Amino acid sequence: DESIGCEVDYRHAEQGYISYINKHLFRNPANGSEEQAAFDLELCNDELSIHLLSNPKQEIEYVATQIAKDVREKGIRFKDIAVCAANLTEIKDYIDNVFSKYNIPYYIDLSNTVTFHPAIEFIKSAFIVQMTNYSYDSIIQLLRCNLTNITMDEVDRFDNYLKATRIRGVNSYRNYFTYEPDSFANQLDIINDIRARFVGPIITFTESVKSEANAETISKAIYKLLCDYQVEEKINRRVDALEQSGDNVKASEYSQVYGIIISILDKIVALLGNEVITPKEYSDILLSSCEAARI
Asked: Of 25, 63, 227, 288, which one's alpha carbon is 20 to 30 angstroms from that of 157?
């Protein structure tokens, strides 16, 4: 392949505004000299302007208007424009909103944590179910991760039933629900069908991660939980849907999460192995590892 080189190295050029900024930004003149004032703007081959705005949103609005203007009036292509910022995390939401308003295509080169991915929340919720003995909040949090075989409409119905009955405890979930509030007359079969369709794998998991379990046993229990609920397949379907909708950035992020989870489980087994560990300790280690992971 033919090598293509940049004819002008603007960054290291002896003259021009980039060279001047590189040498003098945040530096005081030596011995009180006027060296900085001696810069000749005519040496610049490009344009430089400085603008002060009240807040980050106004800054992004200004940048967006200038990009739209340059593309419209100067024929510059979107792919030839770069926006640099000191802290992308603080302005990401502004970029999402403002650039979309101006129909500016963009890609943010920003690593995200996997902590709030539904699969991570799902595992976290499973531990909470075990530690709180199937409390109302833990069960609903698990179901609302949308990784079981229960639809969101069914979750809403089950949520209302639990609020009305205050059912909790693993033994209650093992058996057919018999309490029938007036608001759920003739609906017990529907409620128990929902219960039966999701409860088996979570009971297996909570029985496996009791206080006398070691790190390897708990890791295998998490993997089985993910397999029983077909989490990998559901993530892949979500990736396909995102790609079809054109959201390739989000699709790329989703596609990495399951592999990251499995890698973390393997590392925990390698480090802790047969060491007995409480569910709370294991959960804390797992979540800390997820916080450190980036996509």
From this structure: 227
Helix axis angle, 248-272 to 118-131, nearest 10°: 40
The whole-angstrom separation of Cα 35 and Cα 24 is: 9
Residues 6+ apart with CB under 8 A from 228: 200, 201, 204
- Please write the tens of the pLDDT for every residue from 180-214: 999 999 999 999 999 999 999 999 999 999 878 99
CA 76-77-82 angle, 5° bins: 95
Question: 223, 204 in Cβ contact below 8 A?
Answer: no
Whole-number Å distance between alpha carbons of 119 and 152: 16
CA angle, 284 as apex, 282 and 285 as ends, to 5°?
Answer: 65
**Residue 165 contacts by C-beta under 8 Å, 6 or more apart in sequence?**
177, 179, 181
Gyration radius of the chain over CA positions: 28
Query: For the whole model, what pTM was predicted?
Result: 0.66
- Distance between CA atoms of 143 and 141, rounded to whole angstroms? 6
Alpha carbons 285 and 264: distance in angstroms, whole number: 10
Residue keyed to tokens 């999402």: 96
Q: Say which amino acid occupies 26.
A: F
Q: Which residues contact 22 (CB under 8 A, 6 or more apart)?
A: 11
How far apart are alpha carbons 63 and 106 in whole angstroms? 13
